[in-house]
Fold each of these.
Amino acid sequence: MAKGFPVIAITGPRQSGKTTLAKAAFPDKPYLSLEDPDMRLLAESDPRGLLSRFPDGAILDEVQRAPELLSYLQTFVDAEVSPGKYVLTGSQQFGLLSGITQSLAGRVAMVQLLGFSIGELLAAKSLPAELDKLMFQGFYPPLYDRDISPGDWYTSYISTYAERDVRQLITVRDLSAFQRFLKMCAARTGQLLNLSSLAADCGITHNTAGAWLSVLEASYIVFLLRPHHRNFNKRLVKTPKLYFCDTGLAGWLMGIREPAQLAFHAQRGALFENLVVTEFLKARLNNGLPPDIYFWRDSRGLEVDLLLESGEELQPVEIKAGQTIAADFFHSLKKWGELSSRGEKPAWLVYAGDNETQNGNVTILPWRGLSKLLENI
């Protein structure tokens, strides 16, 4: 991206490694953090003077904290077009994207960085041996480069980042209601989004629930998986499904306090599905591709967990949290193949076991084998 665009913008959740990535990829560029009050004051009071100090560009961290700077950045970029001159980072899509749309359209490449992937943890020899420990620990980098318990870290993360970001974006009069809303969202992981039910359970209005959910999306706490639009029959579900960007955060909000609790937890299947879906999402984003992943479900409850879109081709993926392959694992894939006239074309099934095998046209992959599959996504 830096070879073709004068500005690179790295977005993603807080603590996902945006600053580390920017510094590693551009080690010679000066680094400025706009979380620093003094630097933010300078950016707001004398943006032209600040930028003129760095004629060869710089890394501007958390640039959404000083949105006025983006307008002046346009002038500096247009005066001398130089690929990869400025690197911006931001953990809130609202502030960063609105500023970029207004000031830097056509001049900036967007890169989204979520937490580590299974493939990255494998390469670093840091992947937990047990699936339940991985789902509990999650994928945020600080949990892998320092000696801190996931419980302590997630408690701090929720209060320090999630709630602070919300206050910056919207006024929350009742913080306890918002905390309840977060936990209710976690309890609905992997389910069709029903805003009315969510609002009623939290004692808030439908509009408030919609606004809070948008903020959680903008802060990369949750994401919505959209249903695929192709009309294989006329009774398709058109409601998105709710997922968290990290299973560790979702599990903590569900009240899971140690990996052993996951063995018989009612939400274990939902968390495993969440893990696999986010791995496909990371694979797309890490390759600079749009997140063209969907699910498919009709009004009778027939569902395919993931559909990957590549041109006119659709690749179905079924996700099962069982460790033993059962005959009913293949029911949805078979039915979907008949409805879509795809027949016996290749399909994938990802499960919580350990062995890779084949069943007809379906390639069965263990969770550890995901990185092998995602190399070509």
Note: The longest helix spans residues 150-169.
Amino acid sequence: MKLILKKAHNYLYVASVAFFYFLLYPLLYYFSRKPANYKYMNMLRRTWSFLSSACVGIFYRFTFEVPIDRTKTYIICPNHTSNLDISAMSLLVKSDFSFMGKEELIEGIVTRLFFRTVDVAVNRDSKISSFRAFKKAIEKLENGSTMIIFPEGGIADDYPPVLHSFKNGPFRLAIEAGIPIIPVTSLNTWKMLWDTGTKYGSRPGICKVFVHKPIETAHLTMADTDKLRDQVYQIIQQRFEQQ
């Protein structure tokens, strides 16, 4: 019975996501026509994230290790256990931002508009695609857009979830651009909705997100990539295991 209720809640959540997306779509499409208006797409994405979650009783609570200077550009580096992590990161970043994600998202019903405009798609199996995505991300950072990159590269099949090894991409990018990287631990979003919610459903609740202090990278070289990756991994793992 409990699983049936959770699956029913998941259907409501999916319906809520779809409803607000199509409600906002005319404005999203209008602002997607010109790069100068991408910031308005992100404003609408925050609205969409909040409303689609709040309507089914899902909210987000952010705890900061230190105050974050919102005027700076960062690379946000969170663990990934739930589709709710995307909404959480959209609400966390108050400035202009872009996600980096897998190439398949270009064809997603509710992701293609973003990944054909403001976000960066990458095929990690293609060196050419990875190079182009890297250069595009550098350009966005130089223009003041914060990048949000899930270093695990996706949501793994483990339930309950565990932290998987990190890809080097976001750490190479941070060092190349000299941009601070912020580790973020999504503590319990998977308890509200694991992955897409198809298997175990979803439920109302408060998603707790811990934002760690920024790590400066301006003094680092490419030789420090693995060290930076391992440092961020340990920070997130330690916090995730304390939940």
Note: The chain has one domain: 2-241.
Amino acid sequence: MTFRPILSRGAAALLLAATLGATLSACAPLVIGGAAVGAMMAFDRRTSGAQIEDEGIELRAASRLRDAFGDRAHINLTSYNRQVLLTGEVPSEQAKQQAEQIALKVDNVKGVVNELAVMPASSLAQRSTDTLVTGKVKASLVDDSSLSVAAFKVVTERGVVYLMGRVTQREAERATQLTRHIDGVQRVVRIFEIISEEELRRLTPSMGGAAPAVAPARPASAAR
């Protein structure tokens, strides 16, 4: 009998979900996204400097938000190429705007996408379901040979999947199509920086070594 060294989509989803699930904590009111580390950094389309900046942004912003809200809010914060995404739940519109202003004042932040909902904090069961959905989305990106999973960051909140990354229009459309057909996905929000196919070709040969310098890309409008 021969064993194939390739995970099926279902197995990959379960493996990813299990890995992500291990980081889920019922008593943590604020979660940070965390930039890719280790080997994944070499395949990230951000510069190494941008990746380090994103880590710093997440840590500083998370600390300030925790000081401001404590356990009164459930806020997820993700930084990609200095663009900050806020998701989760806060008790009031005032708290939502306050969280945005706190994030905007963190050094190196160039913009904030505020997707916080004014409502009671989500349950542990909902967060576990979101973690499974994130795993399924990442597995679908891994399975598609036309996409590089390292080019995407995936965040799921109450069934809404947020896709971030530096991608071509072709990659953006394909990733959106895949995500929309995954069980448990209620809606897809795209927060992409669109690059050209020519720029992608320039980036690709450098993926095995140091992260290449990249030219600024125009942000894509969020498609819902």
Note: Residues 28-118 form a domain with the Helix Hairpins fold (CATH 1.10.287).
Amino acid sequence: MSGHSWQMRRATEADLEAIMLLESSIFASDAWSSETMRGELGNPHAYYLVAFEPENPDAIAGYAGLLAPRGAPESDIQTIAVDENARRHGLGRALIGSLVGEARRRGAKEIFLEVRADNPGAQRLYAEFGFEELGVRRGYYQPDNVDAIVMRLLVTDPATALAVGSEVSP
């Protein structure tokens, strides 16, 4: 990880063009349509973020989306995309962490996602967050006919602990 820092904000319909540029370049054969993405950005049960370097707020380096109705026990990470030039600088990790935090705030107890079976880097990253493999959806990604690995994270309540060496007075 180099000295990259990232800022994130809620995505809006004004970000649609920049999101779709990334979407079509990263997911060339199975990209979402603009209409689908617009619907996601406007969905009150969804939480979409865009990420950028602080010195270049108009250049979207990544985005991520979560479907998590407030109070529902389950949520789904819908998509995560990081521009090729921004990879391996902690952005994917930051986006996932933000989505997990939002799912927790909305009351989710489980977060699900599908990841391409031919993307071991993403699988490792999700596993580092505690996602575990539940099963496989054969031929899920079309037209490539690539399997999807279904993963789940059990969302624990935030815990606090005393710092090592700290003392508490009554």
Note: The longest strand covers residues 132-141.
